[in-house]
Amino acid sequence: MATYFSSCSPVPALIIVFSDYLSTLCLIEAGKKGGFTVDIIHRDSLLSPTYNPSVTRFERLQNAFHRSVSRANNFKKCAISPQQISTQIVPNGGSYLMKISFGTPSVDTLAIADTGSDLIWIQCKPCEQCYKQNAPLFDPTKSSTYRNLLCSSKECDLLGTGFNGCSSKANACEYAYQYGDSSLTNGLLGTETITLGSTSSGRSVPLPRKIFGCGHNNDGTFSERESGLVGLGGGPLSLISQLKTSIGGKFSYCLVPLDKVNVTSKLNFGSEAVVSGADVISTPLVTKNPGTFYYVTLEGISVGNKRLTYKSSSKVGVDEGNIILDSGTTLTFLPSDFYQNLESEVKNLINGESVPDPQGLFSLCYTADTDVNVPITAHFTGADVKLKPLNTFVGISEEVVCFAFIPQNGLSIFGNIAQMDFLIGHDLEKRKVYFKPVDCTKH
After folding, report:
1. Residue 415 has pLDDT above 70, yes or no
2. How large is the average pLDDT for residues 87-97?
3. 336 Cβ partners below 8 Å, 6+ apart?
């Protein structure tokens, strides 16, 4: 039986911005099905290193809302051509940052991490064309554990037929990714020892022979602090998938409400991520393309006693896997026709006159003294998730609160406000997502 420790070392080895959350990771030493835990800190919390006291709470919220919209707008299917994989990510938008080390001896880097992307990559020497970064470029020739992958390797095939190439240099596998905002990375696919975290004994945990991209041509909306990107989606090249057996395919998180600025919560992996108890409900994960996202089936939403079937006007029934769970998107995005029906039912149960959103983002708003405690339940297949007002309305100023759902005719997204004060677990082996209502400030 594996042994687990509950405390982190004084100097954490992993820093994450979990979309709008900043996290400190303590990697717990464990056996084959071991686990590790991350403290989640909202990026606007008083505990966050990025906290700016000159910015008001509502200005921070507006920034988060606009990041959310930018992220959702880029969750679109792009045309795919050879040597290109189109993914849905805004590298400086709704992603989070991760301190991760590469090579032997290990070299620390700070990379974007994102549940809406798969490939792990960093900028490498020699750099034909790279964006400016503060940290030194990773030099694979200085690492004793770096290996190029061959064009004929099964790992190269994971890029997808037509999306990989073959370098004239030593028959090495080439990759080319282009993201939804036209940011790009090209380079060689290889394996390397990746080092994460720190045990309570102060020992870092090496992860040998992990697949990653050594980027020699990279450009886009990356900042100087970022050396690359770590994909945490469901595709075969993501860090989650590459750690799948060691963590049993399990991870869970619990997001504290926006107004809890002095409290942290947890992001758990492996055996630490099991969600249990009498009040746990679950819904199947649906396998769809692209495999990056965590798809579930939303059958309907109830407002009071009125249940609305979740479908667009052009559909006869409910599609399986019609919405993704995304902790990296703040708001919830629904098809416009369904949203209009939902908004109408919500308005019917609120005793008050709606007011316009001065920013023009939200469709339904009220004065802050209005009672917006409307019973709303999201009906996923096999799981009726009862939402509280903190999941459905958000204050945008001292005077105004708005419905935290947005109409959009694109990929539907169940965002992180709707997930707050739920312990949400993903089991990729059983292909299930678990929901447990909890007080995340105490979990």
Report:
1. yes
2. 34
3. 407, 408, 409
Give bridge partners of residue 325 from the DSSP assignment: 414
Of 58-72, 134-148, 245-259, least confident by mean pLDDT is 58-72
Known catalytic residue: 118?
A: no
Strand order in the sheet with 405-407: 295-296, 323-325, 413-414, 332-334, 405-407
Any catalytic annotation for residue 114?
yes
Whether the pLDDT of residue 333 is over 60: the answer is yes
Point out which residues pair with 209 in neighbouring strands.
Answer: none
The answer to whether the CB of 425 falls within 8 A of the CB of 273 is yes
Tokens of 403: 């419905």
Q: Tell the residue number behind the tokens 């609305």, with chain if given.
A: 308
Count the neighbouring beta carbons within 10 Å of the beta carbon of residue 190.
Answer: 22
**What are φ and ψ of residue 282, in 5° steps?**
-140, 155
- Cα 323 to chain centroid, rounded: 14
What's this model's pTM, rounded to 2 decimal places? 0.73
- What is the pLDDT at residue 240? 85
Structure-derived torsion over alpha carbons of residues 127, 156, 117, 301, reported in degrees to the nearest 10: 170
Of 20, 39, 44, 114, the catalytic one is 114
The catalytic residue among 20, 39, 44, 326 is 326
pLDDT of residue 323: 95
